[in-house]
Each structure stands twice: as structure tokens, then as C-alpha cells.
Design a protein that fits this description.
mainly alpha
């Protein structure tokens, strides 16, 4: 019963994450509207950074959805989950670093670096949990060999 409530919580969290990703993309439309009124070069980079960060959020949403759908089937400590978390965690880290670099290089004052740092942190958490999943899978295999 606890597993089902955890999966339901993860599904709810995935929906909220997807909603946040959609709002990031809608924020790009607002920036594009401002682009028509503004003649500075920095606004184009703002749109680019918002788009990059929105893709980071969407990747998180895909990862959460995939993991919860596998958890429903009882497939948690498997190699595919390890690799998925490692690859997508690395991608999210790079997205955060690119976002941070663009903000700093082009001196975009209206954007803060906190979202870039959060993406890097989320990516590191995914990589960390990838290692935990690997250890869990190894413990599971050892336990099956002992039995």
C-alpha cells in the first residue's frame, strides 16, 4: 500500500513539474512580445536562456514519469533506471552550466543565476541517485544469490 501512495505522489509531482515546464515556455512568448518592443541584443539571449531552462524542467518531468511508470510495474532497481538517471542527470547539469554561462557572458541582469544553479543541483541529485540505484541493484542481486 505504501508503494502505491509513493507512486501516486510521484505522478502528482510529475504533473506539477510538467505544469512548471509549460509555464516556462509561456514565459518565452512574453519575452518574444517584449522582443518586438525592445531593440537591445540582450533580450534574444534571455529568450534562449529561458528556453534552455524550460528544456531542463521538461527533461526532469520525463525522468520522473518514466521512473514512476517503472515503479508501478515493480521495476525499480534495474540497469535501465541507473543509466537513465545518469544520462539525464548529466544532461541537466550541462543545461544548468550552459544557462549559467550565458547569463554571465552576456550580463543578463534581468535573469538570476539561481535557476541555473538549481538545474545543476537537480542534475547532481539524479547522478547521486543513479549510484544509489546501482548499489541497490547489486544488493538485490547478492541477496538473490544467497537465497
Amino acid at each position: 500500500m505504501k508503494t502505491n501512495s509513493l507512486v501516486q505522489f510521484c505522478n502528482i509531482f510529475t504533473v506539477f513539474t510538467a505544469f512548471y515546464g509549460v509555464t516556462e515556455f509561456l514565459g518565452i512568448f512574453n519575452l518574444c512580445y517584449k522582443l518586438g518592443k525592445d531593440d537591445t541584443d540582450k533580450l534574444l539571449w534571455q529568450v534562449l536562456v529561458h528556453g534552455i531552462e524550460a528544456w531542463g524542467i521538461i527533461i526532469c518531468c520525463i525522468l520522473f514519469f518514466t521512473l514512476t511508470s517503472r515503479a508501478k510495474k515493480g521495476r525499480i532497481f534495474i540497469v535501465e533506471n541507473e543509466k537513465l538517471m545518469m544520462i539525464l542527470g548529466g544532461i541537466i547539469i550541462w543545461i544548468g552550466l550552459i544557462s549559467y554561462g550565458l547569463i554571465k557572458i552576456f550580463s543578463i541582469i534581468t535573469l538570476t543565476v539561481s535557476s541555473a544553479f538549481m538545474l545543476c543541483l537537480i542534475g547532481m541529485v539524479f547522478v547521486f541517485f543513479s549510484f544509489i540505484f546501482k548499489m541497490g541493484r547489486q544488493f538485490k542481486e547478492e541477496q538473490e544469490l544467497i537465497i
